[in-house]
Every structure is written in structure tokens, then in C-alpha cells.
Fold this protein.
Amino acid sequence: MQRPKRVMIISFDAVGSQDLPFLRTLPNFSAFFQDAALFPHVRSTYPSLTYPAHTSIITGRMPKNHGVTDNTKLDPKRECPDWICQRRFIRGTTLYDEAGKKGIRTAALLWPVVGRSGIPYAVPEVMATRRWQTQLLVNAMNGPLGYQLDLNRRFGYLRDGIRQPALDHFIQACALYTIRTYRPGLFLLHLTDVDTHRHLYGVSHEKVTEALRRHDRRLGELLEALKQTGEMEETTVILLGDHYQKDVRNIAFVNYILLREGLMTEKNGKIKSWKAFVKGCGGSAYVYRNPKDRMDPATEEKLMRILQDLLKREDYGIGRIFTNREAQSLGADPTCFAMLEAKEGWCFLDDWRQESKDAKLEKGHAVRGSHGYLTAGEEDQTFFAAKGCGIRPGIQQKEIALWDEGPTLAALMGLDLGETDGTVQYEMLL
């Protein structure tokens, strides 16, 4: 098996299988796909969120096994809970851990859950959630300080907080500089332009089309930078997505009902106590019991009865209820009480001040498009494409899962991820 000296992994957040026909009309994506190994149907994690998905990609494991089962922590008393952004939340090894053991120089720009990972060239994806925090501060606290200060000195003028497309313009400049200056053997790059604009405007808005065109230009620039540094015959480039999105018309706030039914209390606009809490994941939601509260069987029955009554309502957004066992079988958090799947056109948020809301009227969260849903068919899937050293060109039509990507990449690089849920896709490897 041919082993590349350099592997570049580019994640295009929220770019899915349905985008492939349009991407094939764009010059750089079209040229890349022409002689690449392409899996056009990839199942995402459940819930199909960015942090669980990217952790599955680099571990080869489902969320229930790698431990990153959501983007943010469960903390009902905080309106903005902390993000699960640090390496310590991942159980087991990762692709970058194993690369480091082999002396492979690694970079990670905006790749989720790499905070305090020891990666020498990293700008971790982390959000400021406290009043005293700034974006630059939380990045400095979670990644290599000198490297990040240098990037901000050079390219900080491109940045506008976490707003897009300025954020990807900044990360793209950092990526081109890192390729040319440090020549990492493993590069994890995460671009979020499309995801942001789908959240803001919906799945098929013209703003999304513009973001896809920007991604095409970015891909061309990245490939050119790799060529300029040489050794392309020993380089592998991977393009992939993490999940897709669906259009949202209405928002369900299940905690409003739990509060009304006495399973939560609030004071001065904050949750004071809770026996049960529904944590929204966009198109799905975790139902948790308070681990500090010894909920008796009668209260559990009451909670399930409330959820079942909501499920029966035609005017409300719950499409399906998964039991704890069913949620685990799908790879979700094994500590949840149950999991809710939204109806078409609905999503979930955590608030408790109203029962439901038109998504167009929501100002605090961008939810005109959302993910988190169960990947039920090809229309909900994402993609995986590879080209270069060690890759056999040609489209692979079979469906794979995100957690198949990790062991396949490890096999390509001669690394070992240990026990995984995914399997190596040998047919794409030379």
C-alpha cells in the first residue's frame, strides 16, 4: 500500500450529497472529482451535529463511544452553555494523536474538539460564552499562543469575529500560510461558510450558492499552494462534509411544557431547578433527567406521558420519540432518557418562554436551516472524496458512514486507531 507523506483533509461544513451536481459545474471541484475516489452517499452521526461528526471522522467511532455526543455541554441553568471544544472530552485515540506518535507534523484550523490537544499549528474552533471572554482570548486559552498571535498579526484584518464569510477568509489565509511555511504532514481544515448561510437563509438560498462558489475558489487556492511546495506525487487530498441541513419553518420549545407541568422551575428569567430538560440539537433533541434528582417511577411515567401527548399533536413538531435503548443503537448519548426527532419543517430550541414559534421571527438563533436530524435517506447525506497518493480513482457507489472515514484514513497513513465502529474502505486504496 502506498503511503503519502502529506495528507490534506478539507471539511466543508453542511455540504451534502445534494450539492454534488452543482459542485461539478464549478471549475476546481469538477477537476478534483474527475479522477478522484468519490463516495457520494455518507451517513452522518446522530445527532448530525458538527462536533460529534468531526470527532467520528478522526476516531472512527460513533458518538456514544468517542464521548462527544453534542456541540455543547448539558447546563440548563446557563442560557449559553460551554462548547465541547477540548481534546479531553474525546475517549480513545484520534488520527492526529497517532500521527504525532509517528513524528508527523500536524496542523488543525477551525477543526472541532482540538482545544488543548498539543497540535503545534492549531486555531481551535471554540466560542466565547462568558461576558468576560473575547474570541481571541478563548482561542489563546485553547491553542498554541505564538502560532495564533502570528496568524492574527498577519491576517487578523480579514476577521470579523465569527461572522461569515470573513471567518473563512481569515482561516483560508492562515491555511495557505501554514502550507507554505510549515508543510504539515497531516492538515485538518474546517470551513463553515455554507453552514452559516444555510442556518441564516435556508438550504437553497442564493447566499448559499455564493458560499459554494467561494469554497470552489478556496479549493483552487489550497491545491495551488500544495503544488507550489512540491511532492504532489506523495500527497493525498481529502474533501468531505459532516452533515447536511433541512429547511425550517417552525420551532418547538418543549421545555415550555415541562415548566408548565412542574418538571422545571424558573426565577428571574433563569432555570432554578429541573427534574427533566429537553436539550435541542436542531432537528433532534435529547431528553435528560436530572442526575441529582432521584426521579421516582411516577415522575418518569409523567414525563413520558407528556412527550407522548405532544407526539400525537398534529400542530406540534415532534415526529418521533426514541427510547434510551433506541437512541444508543443510533449512536447517541447513552445517558439520555429519550430522544426526540422533529417533524419535517421543525426544529428544537431550549427556551421555555413559549411553546412554539415561526422560524422567521427567531432573532436569537439562526434556524432557517438546521441539522441534527437522523440521516434517513440519500437526500440527507454528505460526501467523501479522495485523490492523490495511495488512492484508486473511481466513484464508489456504496453508502458509508462518517465513522468509516477514520479507519480508512488511518490505513492510508499507516496508523492504528485501535477498536473502531467503522471499517476500512480498502477498495479506494492502492
